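We treat protein structure as text, and this decision shapes the records that our systems exchange. We quote a single record here, exactly as it is kept in our systems:
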Amino acid sequence: MPESTAHDAALNHIYSLLVAWAARLANGARIARNLAFRWLPEHPKTGLDPDVSILMPGPADFDDLASVRLWEPGRAPPPFAVEVVSGGHPYKDYARVHEGYAAMGVAELLVFDPMLFGPKALGGPVALQLWQRDVSGAFERVHFGNDPVYSKVLDAWISAEGRQLRISDDRAATRLWPTQVDEARRAAAAARGEAAQAQAEAERSKAEAERSKAEAERSKAEARALREARERELSLRQELEQKIRELEALGRKRS
């Protein structure tokens, strides 16, 4: 179904957060948008297409996936899925969306309502809903509100700031997870820092080389001056000795 630009922006941000997380941890997870999941072999066209889902570990053929048929060998339901509420069907996301995810076998379902479309008749609107599967296998809603909520799958806190979902290592959201763009900016800043450091080091090396060269030239000049002084001293001594010999010879003649 067509979606608004605000809905798409919210999804892009969540997708970028999770892709950066998977790359940062190198945990084998892959992140999908609108990937079809099917779990009833007798109804192969019936299932769910989560707005965002985590496949962990991601299958070897992830880059070529058109759908995930859970009855096939090696396929598993996503441990974590996200639905972003849209104005076209808010009742579904508040009343019955969890039923399909429960049947699919998802461990956690996050329902994010960035534009607060949730119907008042169903207790809405609220920014965050979180459904979790407990140890008995029951799929229950553990959070319904605007406060931060802890995700067991992500081992992180989820909160909302306006139309943007935030994921952080702490409840106060002081250690926010970066997006792909944030990571790229950090990498670029780090690269610029390394380049500046390398340039500064090169300049220091150049200056040191120039100082060493100047010192060598000074030493060479001093050695040359010393050599020339010794040569002049030797020449003067020789001249003096020659004059002494001449005077001694002249004295002998007079005597």
The longest helix spans residues 180-254. The chain has a mean pLDDT of 91. The chain has four helices and twelve strands.
